[in-house]
Amino acid sequence: MTYSISSTSGALFAKTHVLIYNDIGTGTQLAVHCKSKDDDLGLHVLAYRQSYEFSFHRDFFLKTLFFCNMQWNGTVYRFDIYNQKRDDYRCGDRCEWNVHGDGACMLNPQTSKFDICYGWNT
């Protein structure tokens, strides 16, 4: 499922696409609920290896932030899935993430591996 968010303030930039993969483990569903300051993308439940994608226009002033609550096995974790100051130069207009038990790893365009990893927000 893909969601697109559009705002006139971001019209100078191409759309950015964020793709989230459930890599928690076989048989484990991942509930993903992403938001920004202005948008609530709703709850999406992903089976193992299933993905969820959304897109938006970045902010001219590098202030775009989307965060997600991710839940499995009764525990909720929080992660900034797109922080423009962190991600703009790393993934450009497409950011792909593998979510696993310790946090999330971004697809590195230079190595073609999910090797840029971050722990959960505390």
UniProtKB/TrEMBL annotation:
Pfam family, one: Self-incomp_S1
Keywords of this entry: Secreted, Self-incompatibility, Signal
Compartments reported by the entry: Secreted
Similarity field: Belongs to the plant self-incompatibility (S1) protein family.
Protein name as it appears in the record: S-protein homolog
